[in-house]
Write a structure and sequence with these properties.
This protein is α+β, with helices and mostly antiparallel strands and about 400 residues long. It is about 40% helix and about 15% strand.
């Protein structure tokens, strides 16, 4: 009896979602994203060097330093459970952030390990969002979240053009006598005519599937091996060696640049002037009257100057009290309405200034003079009684 043979249906290539991009579509956006890449690279490099050149950023006594920012965020951020424990490490964390921003900025500018640099930038931006701008209202006024999302295209597509990554890929391919890895955009009609596997019925001879861009083995080519997790070859190993050498050189240059910037900034920095915080005298701690809560002695606030205090409402928010003329006091919640950094009084300019993003407020009534803040500072009623300042919140 003749044995019946079963016909085997040819395997078809897996079909991506209909709405999915064409093969290697992520690599075609490199040129279009160059302006954004330049902006992010320059911005993060500048932010890092600005921190390194400003000794006050690492000074625990500075109103605009990282310690003051973390102290203010503690109690308002979703990461409160962590920030309190990290306060003692504020200075090394400040340096870590500065060098992290420098690595991200340089990585994007020269296109070295672009995906890793972009991932680092997204982590930094999202961390700042959680710590500083989480309560910014409306949310789109907080720039940290916008920066985080701006890094996503580079996490997906890397830095494939005008970059060290592109040079490493081309160099490794040339050394191993492989084909030119440059990705170009052509119409699928051109691909079909070059491939030669399309039948008259518009079917693919290799897969027996419909000849379309999605799932086309000609277009996917060797890049399908990334998904298949093939064993690294000589070209891959050469990429790692070249990329690692470039990264080591860039890291050394970044360290030298950072140290030089910090040295120059420290030598040129003017002495930091800080106002002595007003504290509740031990005898009057918790004292309240119909005029409010006592925050300290009126004599502690210099005429024409200011002093800081903790707002007596249990929130732990920073406050600032000024004595513009003898016997006249005004007090405000010192948290900048933009992203919450504590403002300080610039006596020479007669302005309340946010050291983080430059917002300026009128010291007479707390109104906004210069953005990006759009709302004024909360003003408190101040009364002086028996030499003590009382604030009603």
């Amino acid at each position: 009896m003749a044995q019946r043979t079963r016909s085997v249906r040819p395997q078809t290539a897996p079909q991506p979602l209909v709405v999915g991009p064409p093969p290697r579509g992520w690599a075609l956006a490199g040129w279009a994203l160059l302006p954004l890449r330049l902006f992010l690279g320059v911005t993060f490099t500048f932010a890092a060097l600005q921190k390194m050149a400003n000794p006050a950023f690492f000074d625990k006594n500075s109103a605009g330093g990282i310690y003051a920012q973390m102290l203010h965020a503690d109690g308002h951020s979703p990461l409160t459970f962590l920030l309190g424990h990290l306060l003692q490490f504020s200075t090394p964390l400040g340096w870590l952030m500065a060098f992290g921003e420098l690595a991200v900025g340089l990585g994007l500018l020269i296109g070295l390990w672009g995906r890793i640099a972009a991932l680092g930038g997204a982590v930094i931006a999202f961390s700042l969002f959680l710590v500083i701008s989480f309560h910014t209202n409306p949310y789109y006024l907080g720039s940290d979240l916008i920066y985080c999302m701006a890094f996503v295209p580079f996490i997906i597509g890397g830095t494939p053009v005008l970059s060290v990554d592109a040079w490493v890929t081309a160099r490794a391919a040339a050394k191993e006598k492989a084909e030119d890895p440059t990705v170009v955009a052509v119409t699928f009609g051109t691909v079909r005519s070059v491939c030669g596997n399309a039948t008259a019925r518009n079917m693919c001879k290799a897969t027996s599937a419909t000849c379309t861009p999605k799932g086309c083995p000609f277009l996917v080519a060797d890049h399908a091996s990334i998904i298949a997790r093939r064993t690294p070859n000589a070209e891959d190993r050469r990429k790692v060696v070249l990329g690692g050498s470039a990264a080591a050189a860039a890291a050394a240059a970044a360290v030298v640049t950072g140290v030089a910037t910090a040295t120059i900034g420290k030598s040129n920095a003017a002495p930091t002037s800080t106002t002595t915080p007003v504290t509740l005298p031990s005898g009057n701690t918790g004292t309240t009257t119909p005029n409010g809560a006592a925050i300290g002695a009126a004599a502690s606030v210099p005429v024409g100057g200011s002093a800081t205090f903790t707002v007596p409402d249990g929130s732990g928010a920073p406050g600032i009290v000024l004595q513009p003329t003898a016997g006249k006091f005004v007090a405000f919640n010192a948290a900048c309405t933009h992203q919450g950094c504590p403002v300080s009084y610039a006596q020479g300019q007669d302005l309340l200034v946010c050291p983080c993003h430059g917002s300026q407020f009128n010291p007479a009534n707390g109104s906004v003079e210069v953005g990006p803040a759009v709302a004024g500072l909360t003003e408190y009623t101040v009364t002086v009684e028996n030499g003590q300042i009382y604030v009603k919140v």
